[in-house]
Amino acid sequence: MAKFIKCPRCDLNYILEGEALCEVCKKELEGFNLGDLEDVDEELDDLCPVCRLNFLEENETICPECLEKQQSEEEKKKALVEDFEEDKWEEEEEEEEDDEDLNDLDLSFESLKEEEEDWDTASPLEEEEEDY
Questions:
Q1: Which parts of 46-63 fold into alpha helices (H)?
Q2: What span, in angstroms and rounded, lies between the C-alpha atoms of 81 and 74?
Q3: Whether this model's pTM surpasses 0.70
């Protein structure tokens, strides 16, 4: 049974395992020597591994465009982290202020009990009868 593999040049078309290129690639390369294919393979190694569109210069791991995109994404992430940390500090400060406000209130049981007794002793009906 014949085994099919993808064409090593275009990586789109399938060819038999023993063939070098698909028919489409062969027609594109008419006029080129098969020895030139080795140069094409070496050039493919010089493509950017991220975008696979731009060629790399010596000592580059990714193309300048992809590098710029990565740096801008990192800057955006840093800005988001800084904003989050600022919001977190503001929330903590607000919580501390709320806690201080609650501590300033006089909520002892005795004072609450006295207020309740004051309300119980003065009934609204008695006040209305005095007005007539």
A1: none
A2: 11
A3: no
